[in-house]
Amino acid sequence: MAVYKRGYQRYRGELTGRYTRLLALPRFVWPRLIEQRMILIVLIVSLFWPLACIGFIYVSNHSELWSGLGGDLGKFLQIDGKFFRYFMDTQAVMAVILAALAGPGLIAPDLAHNGLPLYFSRPLSRLDYVLARLFTLVALLAMVTLFPAFLLFAMQGGLAGMGWLTQNWRLPFGVFTGFTLHILLVSLVALACSAWVKWRTIAGALVVGFFFILAGVAEMLNNVLEVTWGILLNPAQSLYTVWSAMLGVDAGEGPGAWACVAGLAVLSALLGVVLEKKLRPVEVIS
Amino acid sequence: MTLNFRSRQIWTIARLELRRVFFSRRSFWVYGLALFPLLIFVMQTIAVEYQKRTLSAVNTISPALMDSVREGERVEAVLERLGKPSRDREYSFRRRERDGEEEVRIHNRQLHYWDGQRRANLIFQEGVLQNIHIRQLVSIDLQRLMYNGVFHYYYLKLAIFFGCLGIFMNLFRGEMLDKTLHFWLLAPARRDVLLAGKYLAGLLAASVIFGTGAALTYGAMLWPVESAEVRTFFAGPALEQMLRYSAAALLACLGYGSVFLAAGLLVRNPIIPAVVLLMWESANGFLPAVLQKLSVLHYVQSLCPMPAPVEEGTPALVRMFLAPAPATSWPLAVLGLCSLTAAILYLAAQAVKRLEINYGGD
User: Nearest C-alpha of chain A: how many angstroms from B321?
Assistant: First the structure.
């Protein structure tokens, strides 16, 4: 069979901007993700709790509906830090489930089918690739966290007046910063798991297991050794402490918010190292 | 084809699979899950020894002297009678009076005393003894309670659950991912025989790993306890309890294993059955008694020597709804779980007969 020498030349034409190139990956992935039935179901289910919270805000701001009932109902129907922490707790669980479903499909197939050289042969660095994948997931998770939170604040601001928002500026700040931290961490976990095990199905289970097993390990450490620093090993509990501090709500016993932030930073760095180790454009097999 | 022949085929398949399940790199994390509590109890032993040394290095008082301390005593009187404490810590904090604007600075002092077995934590406020906490540093009863909590909440609900998910899902789904399942399907063996062989391998591996892990952790739990206390315990219920915990671990592997093996054949994505099962098992205590019996956890917990402890911080409202069904007697528990496993394996056998390989899908 004749073998022809083929000389490839580097593309020398005009390149699109860096951010436009970064968006190319999510642009193709989002429609594919939304097409998945389970993701769509989780997205719909994750709207139930925000809808219930919207109902709560409506009732809370219409005292004529419940003023005749007496008792401590006014205190119960208060829109404060605790209310938003309950809201965040539930949505955070939905975000983890969504990340477990959507995240593993982002990197694992590229690794399993040796697809990375195809990406890196284009004007895309490893960092760009990770950022593009991260952005894909962050935007998806924002739909069940940041977007409903925005709706709640818009509703509360509209009903209670802008004065409420200015008086309680700490709440929107806490919710948006807290959720941003959460979705960044969950996305990193999902991407690292996806890169670590290469197989989508196993990686999904690993994402769920990561949060549950670390929570169990932390609880066991705290109880057996009679300490409270075990919380630092539990990312969900650490985030809970950080949220509570930002919303001005008591988080219970344990390390402070800054210690938890430091613990989360270490965890994120470790996940970053996993991604750095696993995402190689060329794999040398000895 | 006789039953004997089929049994030999099952054992051959299981033997081949066992090597893969025990020694493949993909299984190493399961060992970590099973042995992590052992590490924690070893750490506890080291911590207890360290505390004993630091507490007794300063002063060891008599038990009678420790019991003589009463609330309301002045700090000077306690120091004079009990001598130098093992630990002395002073701190102050500000407290706002309920209706007043003025902040009050409160001076606190904590004294620790040690009588060789128990540690007393005396909390003084403005020089007056407010709280006395006397507790044994380590005792067999405390350790048993702790192990019971670790077994119920860590082993049964997390380690065995996720361990079995990894081991049993891997038996078929892993071979699909490795693109090696067709070799098994080309072998002259019936598909249900293949399923039985693979299940046996997974069950043996999971039982050995988690049964040994639970037994070793049980041993490590006794390590910091005084040897006389351990001897008395071993003369009594210790071995029976250890066997019951190991049997519970084995039964959990049997039940969860069948569920995840079937799930690996029936669905492509393990997250969905895993999350559904995890939720079902977690909500187990809140369900009506009849529904509680439709879970693996109910039968497994029936075998444990002690019921699952209720967490300290559980709100009263949650406690109210928490109504565990009465424990099933152990023969019924074993029979119930074996029946459940047989039913699930029958479903899995039907699924494996219809199995078609599509390596591209994963």
Answer: 20
